[in-house]
């Protein structure tokens, strides 16, 4: 078993399902202690139990709505009290939100910004000072390839994600002297718990497998990505092996995005 995360403390938002859970599993299996945060206590406890069973690692589930500033403070306080700090932060919680731009109300803009941008900004303010002192840290922001190529109808998500990309770059410059590395992962289409919902909304007349096959044909590689492929990239960027990579926004999209 690889032990490259021995002694590391990871905090993963949206860690109870989909991509976040896959990243938690891979990091825990390589020796990290992993705190996972999400809103549903039942799902979170079930995820923590399965991670402990499969990896034997220390797992800390914390109920938290990342769109609420006070929840984030409580989340980091809980992890600090248990483990004394966070070495790896994966800002992953989020979801899709798309409408014609002129229809988007202030409330919808604000909700998307709170969920996917301010959550990261606030968590970074809470955990990065400790990383700077220890001269080691990894901050990974999960975005969408729409951040680089926003088509009509893709707001507010694409706009929020583009801001997340700019934030990643700014932060990478400011934290590089402290060996705190900051990168973004721009996701295309990766199978997760979101996809059964997309299936029901888009094409309930197809079977789930037929739907995934149809969506896969829109991608140069001919298939959706796997959560484990996302987790592998997270682990590379979060490890000592990724020690000279910072300030990037890496596509993980099977070649679908026209922009690098
Ligand atoms: N999968 C894709 O194809 C794809 C494409 C582009 C971007 N992404 C991005 O990748 C990230 C992970 O997506 P996924 O596909 O893994 O989604 P998923 O399977 O639906 O899982 C989402 C996770 O986030 C948690 N979550 C959602 N809202 C939250 C909130 N307000 N506070 C705390 N936790 C919250 C969920 O738990 P609770 O519901 O219990 O809170 C769950 O653990 C998201 O940011 C998504 O936008 C994914």
Plain-language structure description:
This protein is α/β, with parallel strands linked by helices and 260 residues long. It has 2 domains: 9-188 and 225-250, NAD(P)-binding Rossmann-like Domain (Rossmann fold); 191-224, no CATH class. The chain is built from 8 helices and 9 strands. The chain has helices spanning 18-29, 41-55, 69-83, 106-134, 157-175, 194-202, 208-216, 227-238; strands spanning 9-13, 33-38, 59-63, 88-91, 98-99, 137-144, 155-156, 180-187, 249-252. The strands form 2 sheets. It has a 7-stranded parallel β-sheet with strand order 3-2-1-4-6-8-9, sandwiched between helices. Helix 1 (18-29) links the parallel strand 1 and strand 2 (33-38). Helix 1 (18-29) runs parallel beside helix 2 (41-55). It is globular. It starts with 8 loop residues before the first strand and ends in an 8-residue tail after the last strand. The model has no long low-confidence stretch (mean pLDDT 97). Residues 13-14, 16-20, 37-40, 43, 64-67, 92-96, 115, 142, 144, 187, 189-190, 192-194 line the site of NADP nicotinamide-adenine-dinucleotide phosphate.
Question: What are the salient characteristics of this protein?
Answer:
two-stranded antiparallel ribbon; 17% strand; Rossmann fold; binds NADP nicotinamide-adenine-dinucleotide phosphate; 9 strands; 8 helices; 260 residues; alpha/beta
Write the layout of secondary structure elements.
Elements: E1 9-13, H1 18-29, E2 33-38, H2 41-55, E3 59-63, H3 69-83, E4 88-91, E5 98-99, H4 106-134, E6 137-144, E7 155-156, H5 157-175, E8 180-187, H6 194-202, H7 208-216, H8 227-238, E9 249-252
Parallel strand pairs: 1-2, 1-4, 2-3, 4-6, 6-8, 8-9
Antiparallel strand pairs: 5-7
Helix pairs in contact: 1-2, 1-8, 3-4, 4-5
């Amino acid at each position: 078993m690889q032990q490259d995360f021995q002694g590391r403390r990871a905090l993963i938002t949206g860690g109870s399902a989909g991509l976040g859970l896959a990243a938690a599993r891979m990091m825990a299996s390589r020796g990290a202690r992993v705190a996972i945060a999400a809103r549903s206590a039942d799902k979170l406890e079930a995820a923590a139990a399965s991670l402990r069973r499969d990896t034997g690692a220390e797992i800390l589930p914390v109920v938290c709505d990342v769109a609420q500033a006070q929840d984030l403070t409580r989340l980091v306080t809980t992890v600090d009290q248990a483990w004394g700090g966070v070495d790896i932060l994966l800002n992953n919680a989020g979801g899709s939100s798309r409408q014609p731009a002129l229809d988007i109300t202030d409330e919808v803009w604000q909700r998307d910004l709170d969920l996917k941008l301010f959550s990261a900004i606030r968590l970074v303010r809470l955990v990065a000072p400790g990383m700077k002192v220890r001269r080691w840290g990894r901050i990974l922001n999960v975005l969408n390839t729409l951040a680089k190529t926003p088509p009509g109808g893709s707001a507010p998500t694409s706009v929020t994600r583009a801001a997340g990309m700019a934030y990643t770059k700014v932060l990478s410059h400011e934290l590089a002297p402290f060996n705190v590395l900051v990168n973004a992962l721009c996701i295309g289409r990766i199978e997760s718990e979101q996809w059964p919902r997309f299936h029901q909304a888009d094409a309930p007349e197809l079977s789930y497998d037929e739907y995934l096959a149809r969506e896969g044909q829109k991608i140069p590689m001919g298939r959706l990505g796997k959560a484990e492929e996302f987790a592998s990239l997270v682990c590379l960027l979060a490890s000592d092996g990724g020690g000279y990579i910072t300030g990037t926004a890496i596509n993980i999209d099977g070649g679908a995005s026209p922009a690098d």
